[in-house]
Amino acid sequence: MEAAHFTTQKAAADITLTVIPNLGRTADAVMVEPANAAQQTVGPNTPRLEYTFTIFDGADLKIETYLSPTLNYKKNEGLKYAIAIDDETPQIININEGEEKPDWEYPEWWNNAVTDHIRKKLSTHKAVKAGVHTLKIWMIDPGLVFQKFVIDKGGLKPSYLGPPESRFIK
């Protein structure tokens, strides 16, 4: 799913999620504005994006989030967002977790992310039943730019651009 093709957007009084045309690798991207917004705690009033999707048989799902490369301006804390399917407990994803060498020292992972114009982070969602579901993405830190979400039910083949977006029929 392209990040700009959300089903629902929940904004806060002073924080919005803005579509940036032609910024993504394969389409548009979505970012938090203002860029200096305060860090958020996940809750019912936290800005979020929702995407409706359907699976035809139950499975464990992996979701690859494609983000634009972003400097870790928070240094040791890292930049975070939250992800969940339906009403499961949101998973907090730190896009800088496990990095032994910081981005400002230009390690290989940073050079690859900048060269490819993409940063991928993986989340796992267990025993998702067949039917219509809602993927929810919450803003925790500003500075993140979402490009795409790829749902893997098993058997996803690697590709540079990721799979094409499935059609959504209302």
Total domains, how many?
Answer: 1
In one word, what is the shape?
A: globular
Helical content band: under 10%
CATH architecture: Sandwich
Instruction: Say what oligomer this is.
Output: single chain
Beta-strand segment tally: 10
Detail the topology: elements first, then pairings.
Elements: E1 8-10, E2 16-20, E3 29-33, E4 48-55, E5 59-67, E6 80-85, E7 91-94, H1 108-116, E8 119-128, E9 131-139, E10 145-152
Antiparallel strand pairs: 1-4, 2-3, 3-10, 4-9, 5-8, 5-10, 6-7, 6-9
Q: How would you sum up this structure in a few lines?
A:
This protein is mainly beta. The chain is 5% helix and 39% strand. It has a single domain (8-152), classed as Sandwich (Jelly Rolls).
Write up this protein.
The chain has one helix at about 110-115; strands at about 10, 15-20, 30-35, 50-55, 60-65, 80-85, 90-95, 120-130, 130-140, 145-150. It has about 170 residues and is mainly beta. The strands form two sheets. It has a five-stranded antiparallel sheet, with no helix packed on it. Strands 2-3-10-5-8 form a five-stranded antiparallel sheet. The relative contact order is 0.30.
List keywords for this structure.
five-stranded antiparallel β-sheet; mainly beta; Jelly Rolls; single chain; 170 residues
